[in-house]
Amino acid sequence: MKVKRERKIEKTDGIGKENRSTEEKQSFKDGSICGYNSFHRILSANLKPQLFQEVSRLFLGLNYGTTLETIVPPESAKTLYSKHEFDLQAFKFSVDKELLREPRVRVGLIQNSITLPTTTPFSDQKKAIFEKFGPIIDAAGASGVNILCLQEAWMMSFAFCTREKRWCEFAKPASTVRTIFLELGTSMRARIKSIDLNWGL
User: Fold this and answer.
1) What is the pLDDT of residues 53-96, one digit of tens each?
2) Which residues, at least 6 apart from 120, have a Cβ–Cβ distance to it below 8 Å?
3) Cα distances (angstroms) measured from residue 196 to each of 127, 160, 170, 199
4) pLDDT value, residue 74
5) What is the residue-averaged pLDDT of the chain?
6) Residue 33 contacts residue 39 (beta carbons within 8 Å)
7) How much is the pLDDT for 46?
8) How far apart are CA 136 and CA 112, in angstroms?
9) Among the listed residues 119, 151, 102, 112, the one whose alpha carbon sits nearest the alpha carbon of residue 134
10) Domains annotated on the chain, with CATH
11) Mean pLDDT throughout 126-130?
12) What is the average per-residue pLDDT within 99-128?
């Protein structure tokens, strides 16, 4: 005897849209991860200190046999990231101490996201990205950064994903890189030593 089994299929609008919690819906809206700015923040807020330290060791590795030491950002940098709502984390990497020179290198790494939908005019998208970068670069300057690294194609909202190659309009001559960079952050101008801009073009 054969038994016919019926499988109930619920119609959904999107990927589990009606099953999403309020927190998940808010995350999709503001770009956060359940209200947190980064995966690191989720772990820090929800794991016991001892467990978080061990997880950090696995993710970040060790420096001279110990976990990375965190650095407290200056108040001016805190004000900037609180006002403009970006995530700022600072760590200290220990190295062999030199006898004749004091520690002098502080590296800043910036990973950004787009601001406006990719359907808006290119000029507006680029302007929004630049406006978003200004306070971040100023926070780096306020924190004493003298080597600043930006991610590949940082000033492009999208690239290499459309057959029509419209993203080529975001391209800029290499000769304008430093000028554009210095226009973004005011507090970096006096201390800038090195710029690493990977344009990817």
Assistant:
1) 888 888 877 787 777 788 899 999 999 988 998 888 898 888 88
2) none
3) 21, 21, 18, 9
4) 93
5) 74
6) yes
7) 92
8) 9
9) 112
10) 15-61 (no CATH), 63-197 (3.60.110.10)
11) 86
12) 86
Most confident of 12-26, 135-149, 187-201: 135-149
For residues 51, 56, 62, 63, the Cα torsion angle rounded to the nearest 10 degrees is -110
Task: Give the Å distances, CA to CA, from 102 to 78, 95, 98, 105.
Answer: 26, 12, 7, 9
Pairing verdict, β 91-92 and 69-70: antiparallel
Structure tokens at 128: 């929004």
Q: Residue type at 96?
A: D
Helix (H, G, I), strand (E, B) or coil at 38: coil
For residue 134, what are its two tokens? 């200004």
Q: What are phi and psi of 130, to 5 degrees?
A: -65, -40
pTM: 0.67
User: Taken in order 58, 60, 64, 70, is the CA torsion positive or negative?
Assistant: negative
Q: 92, 95, 90, 98: which is closest to 64 by C-alpha?
A: 95
Find how far residue 5's CA is from the centre of its chain.
49
118-127 contacts, C-beta under 8 A, 24 or more apart: 118/157, 118/158, 122/166, 122/169, 122/170, 125/157, 126/155, 126/157, 126/170
Q: Say if CB 129 and CB 110 are below 8 A apart.
A: no
**Structure-token pair, residue 39:** 């995966």
How many residues appear in the chain? 201
